[in-house]
Hints:
Layout: E1 2-10, E2 16-19, H1 21-27, E3 36-43, E4 48-54, H2 58-71, H3 88-98, E5 101-107, E6 110-111, E7 117-123, E8 131-139
Antiparallel strand pairs: 1-8, 2-7, 3-5, 3-8, 4-7, 5-6
Amino acid sequence: MRIYQESIQLREVRRGFHLITGEIMKRMTEITEIKAGICQVFIQHTSASLTINENADPTVRKDFEMFFNKTVRENDPDYQHDYEGSDDMPAHLKASILGSSVMIPIRNGKLALGTWQGIYLCEHRDRGGSRNLIVTVWGA
């Protein structure tokens, strides 16, 4: 059994859904050493999240952003937590809906994602800053 763990800092990106699969693979080259295992990606923030979805057509990511902005609206007068701006509480809610980690099987030294799947960084703030991930890989 091998276990690898890396802290990855992602550069600041605009609000939206961004593919980060390539960046994870570039930083976690140890994945190629695992025949069968698991990769967990965890984000250390409460106003951004992770998910797995379509990696080919960028309109899917735009539609994700549109859906979440319609579903969890900003400037709701009922929000009490508004110290960091009108996008803060909605960002926390969106992050809770999507989640803070994803787990992907590793098979023959590669992430066993489906043909059209990729890992998204879901940035829910207008200016969220850089984002920190902890990526853990284990297997044999």
